[in-house]
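Entry 14. Structure prediction run on the chain below.
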Amino acid sequence: MSFWDGLWRGRSMDFESGSAATNSIELTKRNPTVSLSKQGAATGNLRVNLSWQMRTSDLIGKQRGGAGLLRHPLKLFQPDVVQAHTQGVVNVDLDIGCLYELMDGTKGVVQPLGSFFGSLNAPPYVKLSGDDRFGSPSGETIYVNLDHRESIKRLLVFAYIYDQTPAFDRTHAKVTLYPSNGPRIEIDLDERQPQARSCAVVSIENVKGELMVRREVKFVYGFQAELDRLYGWGLQWGRGYKTKVG
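Output returned:
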């Protein structure tokens, strides 16, 4: 765990204390947008976190039956999250990425594939902190330096399944935005899309100086190139591989 991971994890715990109504905003189909500028949260480092775990109903429903408990009585005392985490290691590898377009026309992607980790204090002002292949509670994180918001035109945060069987329908996945000030912003990937491999989760756009966050949650059956076509980024895509980053 890096220093930055520890620092930001502490801040997220501060946000999570207290009532949900005052410390979180959930973006839904009926209420899909929020203004970071109007929230007073358009400065500092914005932390964008992807976390997930396997659906417990899919993993332990059968094990909770009477016959299963008779054969394995100790499982009665095993926490659900441990079982879900164990299954998550085997079955799913979700990754987070971010398409970016800057005001000067520069376009690109920050993601583990191809080792495009970005930069926080230089263009594109977007940086991937790590690649979590195990679905741990800390998940994966991208940072956006909003002190350079005047250079950012639009961002599209997406999640995808790398080199595994599609499993969006078997995970509880969530993307959470932690601004430097104000409530966290949550987007659940709660739609059952068993064959989808990628999902455009949330966009951040500079609209006449105002930073707007919009829930997207659009699943596609391909990878980044299909998301690119859907949102008109115009990049050239090829086969990529990822390496572990810290």
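The radius of gyration is 19 Å.
Filed with the rest of this week's runs.
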